[in-house]
TrEMBL record:
Protein name, UniProt field: Core shell protein Gag P30 domain-containing protein
InterPro entries assigned to the protein according to its UniProt record, in alphabetical order: Gag_P30 (IPR003036), Retrov_capsid_N (IPR008919), Retroviral_Gag-Pol_poly (IPR050462)
Region (Disordered): 227-253
Domain Core shell protein Gag P30 stretches: 39-206
Signal sequence segment: none
Short name of any one Pfam family annotated for the protein: Gag_p30
Gene source species: Chloebia gouldiae (Gouldian finch)
Gene3D superfamilies: Human Immunodeficiency Virus Type 1 Capsid Protein, Zinc finger, CCHC-type
SUPFAM superfamilies attached to this UniProt entry: Retrovirus capsid protein, N-terminal core domain
Ranges of biased composition (kind: Gly residues): 228-253
Length: 305
């Protein structure tokens, strides 16, 4: 491949970056940013425009670029005539001549402006309205997603007061149901104040997270209490099927439990005392109680570990 052909290929790649800028954020590849330095001459630029655009798009770009050149000449930002600075035929500018190089740089600049201004940005408002707040997504992250979509798919200038009002309404309408119901109660200036919307949304979001954590701890307490109750089941005097003088399987086809004597302990089975007098009862029944106390402390937020 000849040096001239290599240069043209490189210029094509570089101008494609500039072309993508003109197409708008919505049509750029992810992570796009024009980092390469491009320096095509007049003929290179025509080849690149012919390669990347159809004839109509090229005419639109050159027309927009020429208008900008005319304005700069009228404002005396550049010297010479329009034909000198924005020729329709190859002027043969010598890159080694400072005056020619200055005109080539301005021509490149005007063409770049033409690409940015002449090629219309694709507008797709439906993309913005498709975005909904996810259940575990914070209000701030949700708002940033809305702003990015507005930049990418719409012509909203998000820093203008009009755009902020519109974003507020979209933020309100597409938040999670509980947050939306709360925001809908705001009135007047509060409804138009994005900071206020975020404040209310964040408060509800934080409370929701705390409630979820509390329910999880309550579920843990219920499980531990259930285990404790299961361990204590039937230990008391007269408990179902296991009380003094009772049988577990009586009338149910189960295996009968030996009856306790009148003065026999239900816990250690020794005679001469009852269960509530048994010194061994505390140690046998203490562990479930400890587990329940620990779980209660966790739910109440009093357990340091």
């Amino acid at each position: 491949m000849k040096v001239k052909e290599i240069a043209i290929v490189e210029m094509k790649v570089n101008l494609r970056y500039r072309y993508l800028i003109g197409l708008g954020v919505g049509q750029r590849p992810p992570g796009f940013w024009p980092e390469k330095i491009w320096n095509p001459d007049w003929d290179d630029i025509q080849v690149i425009l012919d390669t990347l655009m159809d004839s109509t798009e090229k005419k639109m770009v050159l027309k927009s670029a020429k208008e900008r050149a005319r304005e700069d000449i009228r404002n005396r930002l550049v010297m010479g005539t329009l034909d000198d600075n924005f020729p329709t035929k190859d002027p043969g500018w010598d890159p080694n001549a400072p005056g020619h190089m200055r005109r080539l740089k301005k021509y490149q600049e005007w063409v770049q402006i033409g690409v940015q201004n002449a090629v219309p940005k694709t507008i797709n408002w439906s993309k913005l309205y498709e975005i909904r707040q996810e259940k575990k997504e914070s209000p701030t992250v949700f708002l940033e997603r809305l702003k990015e979509a507005a930049k990418k798919y719409t012509d909203l200038q998000i820093d203008t007061p009009q755009a902020k009002v519109q974003l507020n309404l979209i933020f309100l309408g597409q938040s999670q149901d509980d947050i939306r119901r709360k925001l809908q109660k705001l009135e007047g200036e509060e409804l138009r104040n994005l900071d206020k919307l975020l404040e209310v949304a964040w408060k509800l979001y934080s409370n929701r997270e705390k409630e979820i954590s509390k329910r999880q701890q309550q579920n843990l307490l219920a499980v531990i209490q259930g285990k404790g109750n299961q361990g204590m089941r039937g230990r008391g005097r007269g408990g179902r099927g296991l009380g003094r003088g009772g049988g577990l399987g009586r009338g149910h086809g189960g295996t009968a439990v030996p009856k306790l004597r009148f003065n026999q302990c239900a816990s250690c089975k020794q005679e001469g005392r009852w269960k509530n007098e048994c010194p061994n009862q505390f140690y046998q029944g203490n562990q479930p109680s400890q587990d329940q106390d620990i779980a209660k402390l966790m739910v109440l937020g009093e357990h340091s570990n």
